[in-house]
Write a structure and sequence with these properties.
mainly alpha
């Protein structure tokens, strides 16, 4: 009876999160320097009167930005959820272990050599993220390193990739238009065209993560237990790494080096609905989407007439949260 009630509560949480995503998207579209009422927004979508100011604001500025926030937030949150369970490390997330950096440097390399091939950016970011994720995974599994050692490895990788990105931008300043926003992480300047290809990568990554939720639960129990239950652990681990890298890389390719979403959201959802990835993965996707859209709304309205890149706001939130987690788990290991 208690188990059934728990499942019902988890489903209720997911329904509430879905409603929060809709609310966040509506607020993101309607609020700003010029407010647009929900009726004007709906009217702009239905009638498409290009001459109206409401239509121009909604279709060319806010809707692409909100869609980008939804895609980036959901992708990074699910990527972090996968990495934390796969590496069995609560401190793991795409930016902390260097996956963001690997994706970012590959995007800049692609932009430097193929400036017109915007459709190649998500694939370049995916390859960079995947190579970095595999490297971190091999280090964590091969040396059986501690949680702190794994994080230090990620910091080292991030430093190397960060130096590489700064080198590219120094040698070729035109390598990426809006490079400062890319390095910080932001959603300003997004267009529907810039999201034309990337949503496919994110959709594939989300579908893969949803399909392997039960296997992720088994891996979390330990390699020997998973093998005894008939799971092909090496293959499933590699597939999960691929999906985590695909999600993080695709998000970074258009949103820049946004950090800490993959760290904050999975922990918040675990606190609310527990560790079962069957519910944790969809809850993280929804919560991550709403979180980034709302943070972006705050960053572009709270400091008006100035606009703060959302990556800065997320760093202000995520940095102290990361320190809290380090202290908490260090204390738990001592006890």
């Amino acid at each position: 009876m208690l188990k059934k009630e728990l499942h019902l509560n988890r489903r209720l949480v997911i329904i509430i999160l879905a409603g929060l995503v809709i609310l966040a998207a509506l607020l993101g579209v309607c609020l700003g320097a010029v407010n647009v009422s929900p009726l004007d927004f709906i009217d702009a979508l239905i009638h498409g009167e290009t001459g109206r100011m409401a239509y121009r604001i909604v279709m060319h500025v806010r809707l692409p930005r909100v869609l980008g926030g939804l895609l980036a937030g959901g992708a990074l949150a699910v990527s972090g959820c996968i990495l934390q369970s796969l590496l069995q490390n609560p401190l793991a997330s795409p930016n902390v272990i260097g996956v963001n950096g690997g994706a970012g440097i590959c995007v800049l390399i692609c932009a430097s050599f193929f400036p017109a091939a915007v459709s190649m950016y998500p694939m370049a970011a995916f390859l960079g993220a995947l190579l970095t994720a595999i490297l971190v995974y091999l280090i964590s599994m091969g040396s059986r390193s501690s949680k702190v050692t794994l994080i230090l490895t990620g910091i080292a990788i991030s430093s190397i990739t960060g130096a590489g990105m700064n080198f590219i931008l120094t040698v070729n300043p035109d390598a990426y238009v809006g490079a400062s926003d890319f390095l910080i992480g932001g959603l300003s300047g997004l267009t529907m065209k810039s999201l034309r290809f990337v949503w496919i990568y994110i959709l594939v990554g989300l579908i893969g993560a949803f399909m392997l939720r039960r296997e992720l639960n088994l891996i979390r129990l330990g390699q020997d237990t998973a093998k005894s239950l008939g799971l092909n652990v090496p293959v499933i681990r590699f597939l999960l790494l691929v999906f985590a890298a695909l999600l993080a890389g695709a998000a970074i390719s258009f949103a820049g080096m946004i950090g800490f979403v993959g760290l904050i959201i999975p922990h918040a959802m675990r606190f609310i609905i527990g560790h079962d990835n069957i519910y944790l993965v969809p809850a993280s996707a929804l919560a991550g989407s709403a979180f980034v859209v709302l943070c972006d709304l705050v960053s572009r309205t709270a400091f008006s007439p100035y606009e703060l890149p959302v990556g800065i706001l997320l760093a202000f939130i995520g940095g102290p949260f990361f320190i809290y987690l380090v202290v908490r788990y260090r204390k738990a290991n001592r006890d």
